[in-house]
Specification:
The chain has about 375 residues and is of the alpha+beta class. The chain has 2 domains: about 10-235, PPM-type phosphatase domain (Phosphatase 2c, domain 1), CATH 3.60.40; about 280-350, no CATH class. It has 11 helices and 15 strands. The strands form 3 sheets. Strands 2, 3, 4, 5, 6 and 9 form a 6-stranded antiparallel beta sheet that branches. A hairpin with a 2-residue loop joins strand 13 and strand 14 (about 305-315). Helix 1 packs across helix 2 and helix 6 packs antiparallel against helix 7. About 45% of the residues are buried. The chain binds manganese (II) ion. The site of manganese (II) ion has 8 residues, from helix 5. The site of manganese (II) ion (MN) has 8 residues, from helix 5.
Length: about 375
């Protein structure tokens, strides 16, 4: 094989699909920055919107996994799409989704608008880490539609947030920790509308060369019908934590346990080191239906619980999406109490959108290319 970057090997592919005449998707592969955009607007305006957003993002994004800075870059991209329409490029009302990530070691910052998605593959299991901004996703969150029903729902392509329509648009932003061997996937709905998550997981788990993996994902989406443009970016997470000085914070309860025992073995002292380690950590957990913040680590260790209650929120777990709710049941470890408060703010923003957000009703014309319509 020819020279590939040593860190975070990656690949991306965008394809017109089998039905459409234009590819209105755009992708960006400029390590450590990656993105997928799915343009809407028709008459070639979608291409202008997605490419304008990608270009503006590339010029404004941070080179470190800083979610807030990445969010500001997405807002700059939003203004660029609006300006382009004013300047007569594309047309008024054109828009685009944008799902962007900055990857450094195992740290990933994400900023996201629309119904393109980011996923993490971990131990063969695919975890969706973005929430769709779409009518059907709202219905799933409200419990009035199942994931399966959403795949054939007539409004499945109507998105509730996009770049290009509202200068006060805010993206979702967050940072996650991944482990060496994990894979980050960014994709447009031309993939997820054609293939169920378990099939995407199987392909990503089987084809370890990222160039082969993206090719297989696109081919399978086309074999399934190729009703929409399909775009995929795969980034392999390699070892190391970049320049962050703190030890790796494991994901999930079991890895917390394993890490803690390893820590004890290395130190050879049960008490002081564990206490110090635990006291600097924090986690969020579902307690009687609301999100509660603890200092420490979830679970018990040799009969000791290493946790101290820090704050009880008023955020009902039932108002959050099902994946977050499931993770909260086991406890969501975070690096420290500050990071926990940031995460709480993100949860709060999901259930109480800021005042300047657009209403959750779809914008007139804010409809992506429908993956099933004739
Ligand atoms: Mn699409």
């Amino acid at each position: 094989m020819s020279a590939r970057p040593r860190k975070n090997t990656h690949a991306g592919l965008t394809d017109v699909g089998r039905i459409r005449s234009h590819n209105e998707d755009a992708i960006l592969l400029e390590p450590p920055l990656y993105a997928v955009a799915d343009g809407l607007g028709g008459h070639e305006a979608g291409e202008v919107a997605s490419n304008t957003a990608i270009d503006a993002l590339a010029g404004a994004a941070p080179r470190r996994p800083d979610a807030k800075a990445l969010g500001r870059a997405v807002r700059a991209a939003n203004r660029a799409v609006i300006q382009a329409a004013h300047d007569g490029l594309g047309r008024e009302g054109m828009g685009t989704t944008l799902t962007a990530a900055v990857v450094e070691g195992g740290r990933i910052a994400v900023a996201h608008v629309g119904d393109s998605r980011a996923y993490l593959l971990h131990d063969g299991a695919l975890e969706r880490i973005t929430d769709d901004h779409s009518v059907v996703a709202d219905m799933i969150r409200q419990g009035t539609l199942t994931e399966e029903q959403s795949r054939t729902h007539p409004n499945r392509s109507v998105i509730t947030r996009a770049l290009g329509t509202d200068s006060n648009m805010y993206p979702d932003t967050f940072e996650v920790d991944a482990e060496p061997g994990d894979r980050l996937l960014l994709c447009s709905d031309g993939l997820t509308g054609m293939l169920p998550d378990d099939e995407i997981a199987e392909i990503l788990d089987t084809y370890r060369d990222p160039d082969v993996a993206v090719r297989m994902l696109v081919d399978r989406a086309n074999e399934a019908g190729g009703h929409d443009n399909v775009s995929v970016v795969v980034v392999d997470i390699e070892g190391g934590r970049g320049t962050l000085p703190t030890p790796h914070v494991p994901r999930g309860w079991v890895s917390v346990l394993v890490w803690t025992f390893a820590f004890l073995a290395v130190l050879g002292v049960a008490g002081w080191g564990t206490y110090r380690y635990a006291h600097e950590r924090a986690y969020l957990v579902d307690e009687e239906g609301v999100v509660v913040l603890y200092r420490g680590v979830p679970g018990e260790f040799a009969g000791y619980s290493l946790r101290w209650i820090e704050a009880e929120t008023t955020i009902p777990v039932s108002a959050l999406d099902i994946i977050t709710a499931q993770r909260l049941e086991a406890g969501v470890p975070v690096e420290n109490v500050d990071a926990a408060y940031d995460l709480i703010e993100q949860y709060r923003a999901r259930i109480e959108p800021p005042a300047e957000e657009p209403s959750p009703e779809p914008e007139p014309g804010a409809e992506t290319d429908d993956a099933g319509a004739p």
